[in-house]
């Protein structure tokens, strides 16, 4: 039997006893159990779905102290952040409970028959939606609650009427198992089938790949690296029957700051930005990895303020020793590609130091290496000669979860062009503040053109996340008994 | 220079002078011109978009006689059908004009700021949509108007704010060129850039593949074979920056008929079904390729009625000599796989004869060859021992544009299970009538799980077709000038 070992983030020491990796047979069994649970769950009422989601939220909160303590040991993210993340996760579960109870998954469009020949005439049509089926859900490393076992993918899939099989992330195995223990208890207390929420763990193709390949799975949902996500997407596409794969992958989240605003508020904005870069040790998918400045004295001053503010930050340990190594390698890679270091200090064994570098826009546009996501407390300043060149920088980035535009309050031609360029590449465009912090709300869009998402029309955060798991079906001349179900699958 | 030759469908003879294939350089020029047209078109008002779509509809109607005559020579579909299809195409263009004028592409969701810390508190958010950019549009063979140069993909992309570059289908080159002549005249009369609607023609990877690979293209839209669509989808996914590819591919459109209804209306339904099988020489993506019957005397009688009714049909010529050959090869392939022929006659050189065969459900489920789309006037009867086995047949089909269920008017457990199985695999489920004929209406869903669609959450017919080309963007703390645009890109 393969075993897995949890690691303390801060020390790299083994934590707890080894865990058994899920076998191929157990992966198949989880997929099959999810398929068996599908029919009943797809036909469940909004109230039943809401009860489950609320039960899960309450179970998280009831075990808060133990969960946060364990998460802190495994991830090093600290209790303040982890308590906040647990709050967010419970909030999100309850928000999807609301959505389920309102019956939004059962929304339908009635399109009554029109007499006469086509194209004007047509039969009675109803457009409603069916849940896709069991979802293969891949947890992320950097949000051990909000993008993990009971994260947004799980909540939105359950609200849509889909079972899930959750692949735990190796970075917080003990926490994942503890949360899954809560899941089992809630399913049992609510007399729901255990197969409705499955759980697997382990590396290699015998676990995650096998799950995506299993004929019972109807979709994949993933948050993680571009490399890992692209590989799993290829597996989903290579199935005899390809399935939708929703991957939220890499993002470098450019910030474009206009000199006039920097002249006015440079020190304040530098402090804000330094905090965003080092927040959570830079391990956010929305971490501002690129700061585009127009060549100007105010920009020069901002760089100086930012360097100072960032030097004053003390990032905590990274999530895993592997991530720490990848960060240092990424820094070396960026320097080798010609980035000029502004802040580059050797860290201590327990935590990295923030890294800041700069490069001219033409180099940034020419070298793909400079546009790769560097996961950790770092950012790259890109010096553009003009707004036009700043726009070329955004186009070179191509796809990003966010773009932040500072100082575009007036509708000048330059500002309009910047907004256009930002909207062309990002799922979310911010006009104040920093991109870290993704509101769980109705209008959120967390997903953009490749590589930030494999499915840029979808979001993995916010109310529309549920849409990923509901497929439209038109019913033509449907019988009365079916219409009486008001959009709920039978 | 490579040349292309139009062919008369009925005789296989050359029609008109050879045409020049588009060169690689011209493909690049069309993509670049579309990119240049994008900014202005994305920012255009609904009225401007509506004017263009209405102008295109009127231009088609004004040239009706010439277009239908040419289409008939190239496709053999006959003037009645072709006039109807032209009506439908004009209807569809005007429907998307209505949609554009109503501003549906500019719909937005206002999500005002909520005071307080997260997760409950959040900044002011607005969720709106941006057009994706230039769309590579691949015409289909079998609808020379409705899924071709000015078909639904073009209409919905233009309504969304996206330019298109249209790849003409080799089966109706002269018609495509004539329609594109109308396009140029309308663009010129409306003082719109010529690059807004581009046109290319030719085979090989130097035309269609090059278009999908071009960095300026933001999406692909395709209607055609599973093989061709899958190949182009792979090209879209293999780009340095993958783009959405909307392919409507193969579909075998099962019909499940319950014995009680067949006992009541067997002859009438057999006549209806025979007409649907041979309509347009079976060259519909919604042609009923599989008829699932429960073993019963009424089913036996229906097979007999259907065989007779189908023998009385006289399909017209197929679209191209290549399709005729593929049909005969497909028939031979199905017989070799064990299907027992019920109606199998040698056709004349100018037209094939209808083909009907039968097979037991276990064989159908076991042999993938029996589940392949056979494009032409044919259907395969699948004999199931029970409703349970009929459901297994639907599951084996896996993905289909349509499923038709005859005789499920009562909410019995069997009927509910059948409806569930049908909704699990199809984009549209019909409860009366036949699947040929796809209403252009609000509730339509033309697209289902693989292989019927590469993107099963989307439709290529009906109002929601526009959604394929609009990507959500969340604006956080947007300035007043941007909000004043009411969802229209700047």
CATH topology call of the largest domain in chain A: Aldehyde Dehydrogenase, Chain A, domain 1
Tertiary shape of chain A: globular
Strand percentage of chain A, roughly? 15-25%
Assembly state here? homodimer
Please give the count of helices of chain A. Answer: 15
CATH superfamily of the largest domain in chain A: Aldehyde Dehydrogenase, Chain A, domain 1
Overall structural domain count of chain A = 2
Folded structure, characterized:
2 copies of one chain form a homodimer. Helix content of chain A is 42%, strand content 18%. Chain A has 2 domains: 3-249 and 453-483, Aldehyde Dehydrogenase, Chain A, domain 1 (3-Layer(aba) Sandwich), CATH 3.40.605.10; 254-430, 3-Layer(aba) Sandwich (Aldehyde Dehydrogenase, Chain A, domain 2). The two termini of chain A are 42 Å apart. In chain A, strand 15, helix 14 and strand 16 form a beta-alpha-beta unit. In chain A, helix 2 packs antiparallel against helix 4 and helix 3 (64-75) crosses helix 4 (79-101). In chain A, the strands form 4 sheets. A 7-stranded mixed β-sheet of chain A has the order 12-13-14-11-10-15-16, sandwiched between helices. By secondary structure, chain A is α/β, with parallel strands linked by helices. At the A-B interface, helix 4, strand 3, strand 4, helix 14 and strand 16 of A face helix 4, strand 3, strand 4, helix 14 and strand 16 of B.
Summarize this structure as a short list of keywords or feature phrases:
homodimer; 490 residues; alpha/beta; Aldehyde Dehydrogenase, Chain A, domain 1; Aldehyde Dehydrogenase, Chain A, domain 2; seven-stranded mixed beta sheet; five-stranded parallel beta sheet; 15 helices; 17 strands; globular
